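Methods — Computational structure assignment.
A single polypeptide chain was analysed. Its primary sequence is given first, followed by the predicted tertiary structure written as structure tokens.
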Amino acid sequence: MAASNAHIEVCDLTAAYGTLVIQQDLNFTIERGKVFIVMGGSGCGKTTLLRHMVGLMRPNRGDVLYDGQSFWNCDDDDRQKMKRKFGVMYQGGALWSSMTLAENVGLALEQYTDLGASEIRDIASFKLALVGLAGFEDFHPPEISGGMRKRVGVARAMALDPEILFFDEPSAGLDPVSARRLDDLLLELRDSLGTTMVVVTHELPSILAIGDDSVFLDQDTRTMLATGKPTELLETTTDPRIRRFLTRGTG
């Protein structure tokens, strides 16, 4: 039975490429309306886990539950319905350089709704305004900064009003000030919209600033070592691998 406030449950999940096991025996719960961090060193399988959670890869074993409903042990129609509740921001942004910012944000609305062009434009403008980019509708991605492109990625992920937002290394490549602004934006969206967020990152400042809960993946043992609020793990963990990660090797 699902926990009372569980939005997502990862159950006995093994992630692998063929016979190469990346992570195994993963079990954790993500509460509704929380920012959940998937953390660990490079190569530990953070993005692979995310791919299993959003439907890009089927796990070798185990399942993911959304509101108590199986994601991988259901028919394709039900799985597609669940995926419509997701918004995903990819690490590289994946914006179309030949399209304006409004067109990038509105693309999913064109594909998955019956809205007219003017309505799509209005919604795209509203989503861009939510991320602090009002007035930039007609700019193209190469004309704006990296931090602004990240914000466009967030706006596009929110286009269909998802219940869950997934982020793959959202702060990668940003300077510290831009990364902090993006962190603040995610917290504002969580507080104002109540959206559940799953954030894959190894950026320590972001982890400690925005994480309500987390799972720590380990490359050597190929499984999770701990779950919990990152700031609390920093204070209480006795595992030297987690402490090294959360103190940048100084603890």
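Note: The chain is about 35% helix and 25% strand.
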